Amino acid sequence: MKQFLALAILLIAATLAPAQSGRVPGDGSVPAATNGLSGKSIHDLYTEAVNYALNKFTELEQKNAPYSESVHRKILQEQKQLAAKYAAEAASRSDVSGTDLYYLGRLHWLATNSIDAAEAFEKFLAIRSGEHDAMKQTARSVVVVMAAETGEFEKAEKTLSDYYGNQPVRLSELASMEKQIAYSYRLEGRYEDAAPHAGKAFEATTSLLFEEESRAKALSQFLDSGVTAFEIERQLGHREKAEAILATLKKYGATVQSHSVYFRAIDEQIKYLIDTGRKPSALAYYNNALVSVQKDFPDISLRVQIENNLKRKKKHYEILGEKAPELRDVAHWLPAKPEPLSGLSGKVVLLDFWATWCGPCFEAFPDLAKWHNELGKDGLVILGVTRYYGQGEDGNRATEKEEVEFLKRFKVKEGLPYSIVVSDGQANQIIYGAMSIPTTVLIDRKGIVRYVETGAGTLRKREIKEMIDRLLAEE
Q1: Which residues contact 389 (CB under 8 A, 6 or more apart)?
Q2: 333-336-341-347 Cα dihedral, nearest 10 degrees
Q3: Which CATH number fits the domain that encloses residue 181?
Q4: What pLDDT, in 10s, does the model give residues 298-312?
Q5: Same domain, 412 and 341
Q6: Residue 274 falls within a domain, yes or no?
Q7: Segment 409-459, tens digit of pLDDT
């Protein structure tokens, strides 16, 4: 499937997407001419850098080259390196002033050197000129994001206020600024301060659903800001506001026919009802959702995706809020002696359902080891739950005895300090709805299942860690 041309078109609008802190070194690997730069303006350097990937993607599309993730990543990395070289050249000049500072900031931003970008944009904003209003608004948006990210909330709030007091006001920039301020306040536990910013970010991304050229980007922004706003209101105990946000997500998910947004809204609503002691209402909502999807999604393929997702989650909904079932058919504990879950009363227990052949499972290992070492003293107990798969080293067939020996070596090799539970059969996967792995289950100090989710990745890790902290804080 060819996607290069679509990427080329979207790239122009994405040149001021949030950058990551740090500096990208130029290593000489960029296949573009970098000599004779002193005769070019900083604006020209920026134009060359921003068009680099655009031209490369267009060229590949014209050659009918097949789409490849590796080629995509290579071109974007080359663009960052080129931007870093051009930014270094521009910054070395002694006469950088006026709009040159703006384009220097954009070069740094494109190179993901966000600290240097913010510095250049702040110098540009210090120019007391009534011109270049659009440029100054963009510069303010970057300064706000960086100030919030580094915890400089006074600067972020003041610059955001300046942004609102000037023109043009762009929804995409508003969404980015408000979201980052809300997120940064939330990280510090300042939920009251975070809530209004999260609400404004959600409003902006709701409007962007119908304005963004990229549907995928618009949906991602909308869902992310909506879930963030919901989580903040939930933390503040504002049930009506929290549920109103989920209702909006579900409504617009149906309006734009996004099965992912629609399902996420339903999923969060069911879990929220269970978490707030309203399980009968949660299960009724689940049944009603299976009916409402018939009306909300005329496209049968989208409807089936939502229905299948809900059915796969049914076991999770049933077990949430209930006493954790004991692990069954346990053949080996490595290395500890068998200990029933009932014997871990007063502890927060994390069950990690995994297998040696599961690639995504490996992503969780470093964090699980870290949490075991750092939070064990606070009452966290981690158990890696797997079963006999008849596989040993390199996926070769193995007897149970050989597989156990392999698991012992695997535990040492991967640096897993917590106990591994090996079962004979799928009983535990069935009981906990862990037929897909990795699946994480969190059990509170009273032995109640409070969290069940399948999948890995950065967002999942953050979600699990937040839930662990929440359960550890409970008595």
Answers
A1: 355, 356, 357, 403
A2: -140
A3: 1.25.40.10
A4: 999 999 999 999 999
A5: yes
A6: yes
A7: 999 999 999 999 999 999 999 999 999 999 999 999 999 999 999 999 998
**Residue 394, pLDDT score:** 81
Kind and range of the H or E run holding 472:
helix 458-473
254 and 387 both lie in a single domain: no
Tell whether 309 and 416 lie within a shared domain. Answer: no
Bridge partners, residue 332, by sequence: 422
HSE at residue 448, side-chain half, CA atoms within 13 A, is 12
DSSP string spanning 379-407? TEEEEEEEE--SB-GGG-B--HHHHHHHH
Contacts 24+ apart (CB under 8 A), 357-366: 357/389, 357/391, 357/395, 358/437, 358/438, 360/437, 360/438, 360/455, 360/456, 360/457, 361/437, 361/438, 361/456, 362/414, 363/456, 363/457, 363/461, 364/438, 364/440, 364/456, 364/461, 365/414, 365/415, 365/416
Last residue of a domain, one of 283, 318, 353: 318
The domain total for the chain is 2
Residue 350's beta-bridge partner residues? 382, 442
User: Residue 335, preceding bond cis, omega within 30 degrees?
Assistant: yes
Residues 6+ apart with CB under 8 A from 223: 249, 260, 261, 264
Q: Which domain holds residue 216?
A: 4-318
Q: What is the CATH number of the domain that holds 363?
A: 3.40.30.10
- Cα distances (angstroms) measured from residue 315 to each of 66, 319, 342: 41, 6, 21
Q: Is 431 found in the same domain as 310?
A: no
**CA distances (Å), 6 to each of 31, 75, 192, 203, 213, in order?**
23, 15, 41, 27, 11
Rounded to the nearest 10 degrees, what angle do helices 42-62 and 69-91 cross at?
A: 170
Reduce the DSSP state of residue 199 to 3 states and report it: helix
In a domain, 324, yes or no: no
Helix or strand run (H / E) with residue 419: strand 419-423
**Helix, coil or strand: residue 126:** coil
Tokens 């906990």, located at residue: 432
Q: What is the pLDDT of residues 206-235, one digit of tens each?
A: 999 988 778 888 999 999 999 999 999 999
Q: Tokens 């209930």 sit at which residue?
A: 322
Note whether 243 and 97 are same-domain residues.
Answer: yes
Residues contacting 20, CB < 8 A, separation 6+: 112, 114
Q: What does the alpha-carbon distance between residue 79 and residue 255 come to, in Å, rounded to a whole number?
A: 37
What are the two backbone dihedrals, phi and then psi, of residue 23, each rounded to the nearest 5 degrees? Answer: -125, 140
Last residue of a domain, one of 318, 345, 363: 318
pLDDT grade, residue 22 (50/70/90)? very low
- Are 68 and 211 within one domain? yes
